[in-house]
Amino acid sequence: MSVQDRPRVLVTRRTFDEVLASLRERFDVDDNQGDVPLAPDELRRRAAACEGIITAVADPVTAALLDACPRLRIVANCAVGTNNVDIPACTERGIMLTNTPGVLDDTTADHAWALMFAAARRVVSSDRWLRDGHWKAWGFMDWHGVDVHHATLGVIGMGRIGQAIARRGAGFDMNVIYHNRNRLPAADEAACRASYRSMDALLGEADFVVVSVPYGPATHHLIGARELGLLKPTAVFINIARGGVVDDPALVALLKAGRIAAAGLDVFENEPALDPGFLGLENAVLTPHIASASRATRLGMAELAARNLTAALSGERPPSLVNAEVTPR
Description:
CATH topology of the largest domain: Rossmann fold
Structural class: alpha/beta
CATH architecture of the largest domain: 3-Layer(aba) Sandwich
Radius of gyration: 22 Å
Strand order of the largest sheet: 8-7-6-9-10-11-12
Number of strands: 12
Shape: globular
Number of helices: 12
Largest sheet: 7 strands, parallel
Order of helices and strands: EHEHEHEHEHHEHEHEHEHEHEEH
Number of domains: 2
Helix content: 25-40%
CATH class of the largest domain: Alpha Beta
Distance between the termini: 18 Å
């Protein structure tokens, strides 16, 4: 195959040099190592002649974009979630959509726990208070937080990540409860040492609530004002799912009123333009959608996205095809 005949692909965000080098062995690659987010018009222009694109969670893959790319055969999303992609539009056009499941489960679960501890033990606010020069003497009654050990952990969404979060609870002698669209098999419940609850029962019983569900129309504002109102005043609320699963203004109001102890949030509605009400809250720990951001995991995600793209453009079934009804061509 001559250089001119090689399939053209676009990588929309900065990625690892070794992944780009591997792709360039087979494809004509247009990269974005400057990591400037591509506006919709620019994304359409650069993707128009491509047979494959590797996208990120911030890239909206719309029907209009797909219509501008008549040669496109695969969208390889470098994420587990696919809420940035119009899946029916891909399927209607015979375009394969892939994601990167599995490689980020444990890293994302670790970050959920990092948020739990930081929020429960007031790590961020006490760090800022110390750095600002306020620590003049040790105080027995200062900076009281919430214990994690022996508490009740409630997990909403028991997919791979939710189960990884739940399994870690055993190390802290926690009582683990969960809610899921479908109850897990008994063997999986036993592996997680977890007991099933209805949503309302979980929200009222748990000391720590972690949300780990995919985002879509069925889960938009799954946790709204009514659900948040069921939480204990001492509860800590964690969202590592997707912005939009939680009604953020309702959560801001709850935290401002001191109706729960704290929250730890990695995702937000309309991110990065999050609700400004979060910024002044001392009882909220905020991170910029970094739950999968260890080097090893992000490299694994990029490599899987590249394998998906390579397989599709070689006429093979990609390892993690989302719309299975689309066949390689």
